[in-house]
Design goal:
It contains 2 helices and 5 strands. The N terminus is likely disordered.
């Protein structure tokens, strides 16, 4: 299956990918295409505001996805990341949708190391 920007994210699992994307949209995610690099010119980027936090999903391919929760900031920085998961699309979406709401007692709140692959709006490219 092709995402909004022509990113191949499903292979032979179109129904599962469609269901996962539908679940993300039902849970408040909004998607747009994002500039990639010389290997993957366009990627799919989703975000969901959660008050003082934001949840993000960056899809470059079926086995190249990154999800994160970050504190909302006017100047995003690596120290704003409180949770991060990388992997295959369906696994990453499952982990993201299983993440407790930010106000839940079990929600992550401490800064974690940001992977270099994570880009969010407001951060410089490159």
């Amino acid at each position: 299956m092709f995402g909004a920007a022509g990113v191949v994210i499903g292979g032979g699992m179109t129904a599962q990918v469609d269901a996962a994307l539908g679940a993300l949209v039902r849970h408040g995610f909004v998607f747009r295409h994002a500039q990639g690099d010389r290997y993957v010119p366009w990627t799919l980027f989703g975000q969901r505001p959660r008050g003082a936090y934001g949840d993000y999903l960056h899809v470059s391919g079926p086995d190249d996805c990154l999800a994160a929760r970050m504190r909302t900031s006017s100047q995003p920085a690596p120290s704003d990341v409180v949770w991060c998961e990388e992997g295959a699309f369906l696994d990453t979406v499952s982990a993201l949708l299983s993440l407790p709401a930010p106000d839940d007692a079990n929600a992550p709140r401490l800064a974690t190391r940001r992977t270099a692959a994570l880009w969010t709006p407001g951060m410089p490219l490159g």
